[in-house]
Write a structure and sequence with these properties.
Growth Hormone, Chain: A, mainly alpha, 0% strand
């Protein structure tokens, strides 16, 4: 449990410091867009490759290395901007697959996965909300160093050799990755009302809460019921996009499936859990940018169809993977 909490802190720090460093460059809108494009490419696309390398060794030391790379990125940002972006992106990518692999091997439940991914959204929102607040950044830097020191003394989970597990089920991994792509697309395609500046922080907390609770709810009530109810909440929110409270519920509901799809990806690729985690992260990029470019051409029927497709894919994949030979990952 202590390791889960520490990795949650690291996830918050990773997304907070990386985005805070990028946003304090003082660039115009176009410059920020290009910087973030490069950062997102480096933060997400290399994850499958880095995950494959981590699957061949122990992930614990790579978390510390990732934190060091991120610190270098922050320091370089105002000296050699593009070098700073490279360090921030690669540090982010390395942390996600290393930390994700550790979480995966701690428990067979979906709850810890949701707890791990949730703080990232909150860290991102805090970076945007408190741009230029150097005092807060300094305080969080000190906390990050203390958490990193504590991390060195916490025992890492025992990870068995990967060659004893079931072979890769590539077709199901592709199916799950497509569901994640749809979710990322909907997250940007559906435009919610932003009535006041602090809504950004509330939206980040709603996304984080959805991810955090999604895994625990699925552990308690099952995948099918969880994704069906969350999709129903999302559909209802589509008819009240101008209502801030309902919008927060919509953001919450669309993020509930995140830990579920991560868990399905691991079941589809049990020999290479960090690689599976990286593939799910990589799948976010095309969906995210497709949603950004098409957000101005919103159609309700398209959104409803994609929501239905998403829940159908998740339920179908979960049913088929449960029927497959049990994965001996957590025994």
């Amino acid at each position: 449990m202590l390791m889960v909490i520490i990795l949650m802190f690291f996830h918050f720090f990773t997304d907070y410091f990386a985005n805070y460093a990028l946003l304090t460059l003082g660039l115009d809108y176009e410059g920020i867009a290009w910087i973030f494009l490069m950062y997102n490419i480096l933060a997400f696309l290399p994850q499958p490759l880095l995950g494959f390398l981590i699957d061949k060794t122990s992930p614990k030391h790579f978390v510390s290395i990732a934190m060091a790379i991120l610190a270098m990125g922050v320091l370089f940002m105002h000296v050699f901007v593009w070098a700073g972006v490279v360090f921030l992106g690669l540090g982010n990518a390395l942390f996600h697959v290393a930390g994700g692999k550790m979480i995966i091997h701690m428990s067979e439940k979906k709850g810890p996965l949701g707890a791990f991914v949730a703080p990232g959204a909150i860290g991102l929102a805090c970076a945007w909300m408190f741009i230029g607040n150097d005092r807060l950044a300094l305080i969080l830097s000190i906390v990050a160093v203390l958490v990193l020191l504590a991390y060195q003394f916490v025992k890492a989970p025992v990870i068995e050799r990967s060659d004893k597990y079931e072979p890769i089920r590539v077709h199901w991994l592709i199916v799950v990755a497509f569901a994640i792509l749809i979710r990322a697309f909907l997250g940007k395609y559906v435009t919610y009302e932003i009535p006041w500046v602090y809504w950004v922080l509330l939206a980040g907390c709603s996304a984080g809460l959805g991810k955090f609770t999604g895994g625990f709810i699925a552990d308690r009530f099952g995948v099918t019921l969880t994704v069906m109810i969350s999709t129903l909440l999302g559909v209802v929110s589509l008819f009240f996009l101008d209502n801030p409270v309902v919008s927060l519920i919509g953001i919450f509901s669309i993020n509930i499936a995140m830990p579920i799809t991560l868990h399905l990806a691991v079941r589809a690729m049990p020999r290479y859990t960090a690689t599976a985690f990286g593939i799910t992260a990589m799948s976010l990029v095309p969906g995210f940018y497709a949603g950004v470019f098409l957000a101005g051409h919103y159609y309700l029927l398209v959104t409803l169809f994609l929501m239905l497709a998403n829940v159908s894919i998740i339920v179908w994949a979960n049913h088929r993977l449960k029927k497959a030979k049990e994965v001996d990952l957590w025994k």
